[in-house]
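Quick question, first post here. What does this chain look like in 3D?
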Amino acid sequence: MDQRLSIFTGNAHPEFARRVCEILGVELGGVDVFEFSNENIFVKYHSSIRAHDVFIIQSIASPVNRSLMELFIMLDAARRASADRITAVIPYYAYGRTDKKDQPRVPITARLIADFLQVAGANRVVTMDLHAGQIQGFFTIPVDELTAFFTLADYVRTRRLLNPVVVAADIGIAKRARNFAEFLGVPTAIIEKRRSASGTGIEVLTVIGDVAGRDAVIFDDEIDTAGTMTRAAEALLAAGVRSVYAVATHGVFSGPAIQRLATGPFEEVVVTDTLPLPPEKRLPKITVLSVAPLFAEAIRRIHLGLSIGEMYEVLI
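> Answer (accepted):
Ran it through. Tokens below.
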């Protein structure tokens, strides 16, 4: 690769950045990113990046707001160090659920984050499976949204499930779930649910589709507290499924998620490594698939000026 290609990472998910660099055969760039005793974050690149093509890999992982500030400051430092082009590589884009003003006097934080990234110095963004596709439109710079669709589908095929059905975790993910099911050549079902007026808790109303006697694969873009997944699994079992699997791109696993998954009726929970999974959360039933090769290939193509879309043409 060109010596002017420079890849750096903050503290959110350094293991992922190292995987990407190993695949590309480049060395992860040296940078100091630390917090002073007054909680102010400091960034300093170890060597010149003037006129370099810089990629900063930083998933917006817990602690979310610190991960964001590290990214903003790294972008600003790279811009002030005269980098030629700066790409923010964000495997998981947090605040994606606040993509619209759905009640009075609330923010559109996903748009605010987009503004911050551009002001800080990002010339391009690479991310994966945004919670809402319209987030791409919040940017005035190029955004490449990668997908774990094929990685997840290929893995599901290896499980050789009995008469499987793909189940959309809710109406919002129904289109993606339908595409996932069509790619696998299996039917689709949908969990119809209603959130409580306070926004906490979920009431599952019904399962739409024929699921009795089948192996159900619940599909979603992320698993946060696992409330949706757990209630969906319970509704499916009540509807007569043979077994339940959960599949999602992002394993956020916040709050009671691990306890819910551990005690829930799941044969297996499949996510990718867009977010780190600490040892205390590594349940035997959780399988983590790596999407580092996809990000490595995207970085290579962006650096060389090649098409990102053609990455997936060979997979279809």
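The chain has nine helices and 14 strands.
Residues 35 and 41 are 4 Å apart (CA to CA).
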